[in-house]
Design a protein that fits this description.
The chain has four helices and three strands. It has 127 residues and is α+β, with helices and mostly antiparallel strands. The chain has a domain of 72 residues. Strand 2 and strand 3 form a beta hairpin.
């Protein structure tokens, strides 16, 4: 059993243009080179956000919601988790005071707090 290697050049049936790099075909020709580039207009910049005002407004809204729920004898309270900057909703049984539901639940809040604590270990705060 013998193996023969074909060391001849490509068959003559393949035109030489077929082996040209594709990039050469994509370069702009003389008709395209004369056109100026298209300039996109800049999008308007949004106004700056005042985070302190947003925090104050959110706390006021939470207070109004809590007052409204008390007037309706509903044990539904809203609070703000300052570590996570997230609203926490607690539904309690009005007669027993037991928590019926918390959104996000206590386990999710603990996990998020641990993630925030460990994130500080991975970030370098050198200034």
């Amino acid at each position: 059993m013998s193996i023969e290697l074909n060391t001849q050049s490509p068959p003559a049936a393949i035109p030489s243009r077929a082996t040209e790099p594709l990039v050469a075909k994509l370069q702009p020709g003389p008709a395209q080179a004369d056109k100026s580039p298209i300039v996109q207009p800049e999008a308007p910049k949004p106004p700056p956000v005042d985070m302190a005002k947003m925090q104050k407004d959110l706390e006021e809204a939470i207070g109004r919601l809590n007052d409204h729920m008390k007037k309706n004898n509903t044990q539904l309270s809203f609070s703000m988790d300052n570590t996570l900057n997230q609203v926490v909703v607690v539904v309690k049984n009005q007669q027993t005071g037991n928590v019926v539901r918390q959104i996000p639940n206590e386990a999710a809040l603990r996990m998020a707090h641990h993630i925030e604590e460990t994130r500080g270990l991975f970030e370098d705060h050198n200034i």
